[in-house]
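User: I'm writing a tutorial on reading structure tokens. Could you give me a worked example: one chain, its sequence, then its tokens, then a sentence or two explaining what the tokens reveal?
Assistant: Sure. Here is the example chain.
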Amino acid sequence: MGNDRPLSLVYTPELADLRKEYWTIVLRAVALTLLLMWACLPVYWGALAYSARMTSNLTAWFIDRDNSRLGHALWSDINNTSSPGPQLGWVFVDGDSAGSDQDIIDAVIGEQVWLALVVEANATHKLATARQNGDSSYDPASAITVYYSQARQEIATGNYVVPLSTALLEKTTSAWATTSAQQYLAQIYAQGEVNGTALELLARAPQTISPAVGWTTVNLRPLRTAPVATAVTLVGQIFLCIFAFITAMANAAARPLIQRHLRFSHYLILRFAVPLVAYVPMSLTYTLVSLAFHLPFDTRYNTASGFMLFWLYVYLGMAALGLALESMITVLTPKFVPFFLFSLIIANVASAVLPDELQPAFYSFSIAFPVWFVLSILLPSPPTPCLPCAPNPHRNL
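And here are its predicted structure tokens:
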């Protein structure tokens, strides 16, 4: 009975060999984890660290259909801005070359450009006419239309594209409206005499003086119509990788029970077939859970087709992640494959967390990783809104 009493881990000589083995395992795991942190964390940190310096890679079109004072003045201010901090990469596009509204929408949706700012035709003339006639129906927001697609990349549009364009428009339109109002008021009070008729007309339409010019923002692909998409995309892909890892570890634990009795060809079939079959119900469950929380599958295709395509791409993404884990179990053994799992997640997330334009050239490897590819397809794409009656546009007056 005396030999059954608890022993001290630190001082008992009988535990010397076990104590050495214990500390070897623990310290080796800590050392490998520290190396993994130094190797992998900078990859993810670096994916986000330089985005604010690279916003000029986010191309924005300035389309001047007005071809008059307003369009010329706005482009002059935007093109010659020297404000410190991030700026979009503005490109002037002639109104005739830009084509119709639908052509511009197709360019934004087709990811040729991140944002398109359109100074509408006769914007300057319409404002002047509204002032002269006292047109109370004049809408300042009709002068400019801004198109963008939130679902292309929510972080880039939310942190850079929309805030930077909004701040620039507020500055440039306010400056132009102030100058224009001063010039018009100077005409009313020309030679020290008040033009009573003009003043009365101005009182009928005060919005022609302040704000005079505004804009309408049209989000062509709103992500917030389906908030669950945030869970389905980037974070959801991490979940899929973890599910595939659980399957790989279970397969590795069960395989020794029968592998010695199998031919090599049958062993290979077992290695490939079991995970690929297991991913079918897993990807289906992932898709069904998304359906239960009203992820829209009918935005580009009908619901049935959208569901099947979503399931297919989820399965392919899970297979790519899972088979990578399956292969590395052979090389690293189940004891060390968790370290590869972390590396796999970091590499995939870092390459997909921001668009290529906001990351250094080092991250061009993203196109070879499944999460980047799957995310480029799974982001929701609601139907193109009918212009000029876009659904619930954000109006800046």
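What the tokens reveal: Residues 257 and 335 are 18 Å apart (CA to CA). The beta strands are 59-64, 89-94, 115-119, 144-148, 215-219, 394-396.
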